[in-house]
Design a protein that fits this description.
Layout: E1 12-13, H1 27-37, E2 47-55, H2 64-86, H3 91-103, E3 124-130, E4 135-142, H4 148-158, E5 163-165, H5 166-175, H6 189-204, E6 228-233, E7 239-245, E8 266-268, E9 273-279, H7 281-286, H8 289-298, H9 304-318, E10 322-328, E11 332-334, E12 341-347, E13 354-358
Parallel strand pairs: 4-5
Antiparallel strand pairs: 1-11, 2-6, 2-12, 3-4, 3-7, 6-7, 8-9, 9-10, 10-11, 12-13
Bound molecules: aspartic acid.
Length: 360
């Protein structure tokens, strides 16, 4: 994550994105063509932005095969969100549809691909927020819930609470018929080996200071995070945001990061913007990143881009690495990060998916 503090972003609007990596012929492009054929009225500007984690993601360390796998899964997630939005569905449905796909993929540190705790377990966190009502739902420390984002949504919509943790959250999940899995479901060899390498590192070192926690993934080539998130402006003009993660490799003592914390890792407010973050959770909590971006817009008159850059710069000054995706009520979006890469993608009314991984 290291020394490189330059921020990179793709900035655009839902109507006219000036991005790279259009993938004609994909399900998204086909869906767009269908939408046009159906002549279902002028498309109000809508936009959907996702991330699959920020960190040390370098072109020369990535195999072509692996890069293709990431691009394909991110494109699939954009298509899932687009399909909901094209039909005029609620942004919350788009956010959940995309995040579920990413949670089910072992490529990302969420759901199936969650990292391991120091004890060798997987503890999952997630949150969601509806910018129209300012309702929110969050879950933390889950060991059996296959798709934490679904449970976060149920907390928001079918409970009087905002946040549930651990066994209590799983009891609620059981009552609501949410799919539970054997904790072994979350085992992936790659994540297990990451934990072993991290343990070896720990044995060689004195315990990390908090300023070292920003490189918790182990050796340099593993300084990546892999949390997933989505933000959305739907055709009704509503904003929504969601985030899901396995947290940090080798986390201890029931550690919870920013992802399930409303205002830190996730925030949505129709008056301003929707934000989903990824990176060193401790720093994102201390900087209250997602809400601070909204506040900089609301009280400081900043544009989305200015607000996102300003707040992320603050995280960087503290020593934290990461990034975020954000969209405002006009469909402007920003994807700044201060790491070497961030898996990210955008789709607007034209249905063209744009996926990027590296800075350039
Ligand atoms: N923000 C997450 C956490 O601290 C990690 C990540 O984004 O990868 O738990």
């Amino acid at each position: 994550m290291g020394a490189d503090r330059s921020r990179r972003k793709f900035i655009g609007t839902a109507g006219a994105a000036a991005l790279v990596s259009c993938l004609p012929g994909t399900p998204v492009a086909n869906a767009a063509a269908r939408a046009r054929r159906q002549k279902d009225g002028p498309l109000r500007p809508f936009g959907f932005v996702i991330h699959g984690g920020a960190g040390t993601i370098e072109r020369d360390k990535m195999t072509a095969e692996r890069e293709a796998a990431y691009r394909s899964k991110l494109t699939e997630a954009l298509a899932a969100g687009f399909e909901v939005l094209r039909k005029g569905g609620p942004g919350l449905d788009a956010v959940v549809a995309a995040i579920v796909l990413l949670e089910d993929s072992p490529l990302f540190n969420a759901g199936k691909g969650a990292v391991f705790t120091a004890e060798g377990t997987n503890e999952l966190d997630s949150s969601i927020m509806d910018g129209r009502t300012l309702k929110a739902g969050a879950v933390a420390g889950l060991k059996r819930v296959k798709n934490p984002i679904r449970l976060a949504r149920l907390v928001m919509e079918q409970s009087p609470h905002v946040m549930m943790t651990g066994e209590g959250a799983e009891t609620f999940a059981r009552q609501k018929g949410v799919e539970l899995v054997d904790p072994k479901y979350f085992y992936t060899e790659e994540r297990w080996q990451q934990l072993q390498r991290r343990k070896e590192e720990e044995e060689k070192q004195t315990p990390p200071k908090q300023s070292d926690l920003r490189t918790p993934g182990g050796p340099p080539d593993e300084k990546k995070f892999g949390t997933v998130g989505a933000v959305c402006l739907d055709r009704e003009g509503n904003l929504s945001a969601g985030t899901s993660t396995g947290g940090m490799t080798y986390k201890k003592f029931g550690r919870v990061g920013d992802s399930p914390i409303i205002g830190a890792g996730t925030y949505a407010n129709n008056e301003t913007c929707a934000v989903s973050c990824t990176g060193d959770g401790e720093y994102f909590i201390r900087s209250v990143v997602a809400h601070d971006i909204s506040a900089a817009m609301k009280y400081g008159g900043k544009s989305l881009r200015e607000a996102a850059d300003l707040v992320l710069a603050g995280v960087g000054k503290l020593g934290g690495g990461g990034g975020l995706v954000a969209i405002d009520r006009r469909g402007n979006f920003a994807t700044p990060f201060n790491t070497s890469g961030m898996y990210r993608g955008f789709v607007g009314p034209d249905g063209k998916p744009h996926v990027q991984i590296y800075k350039d």
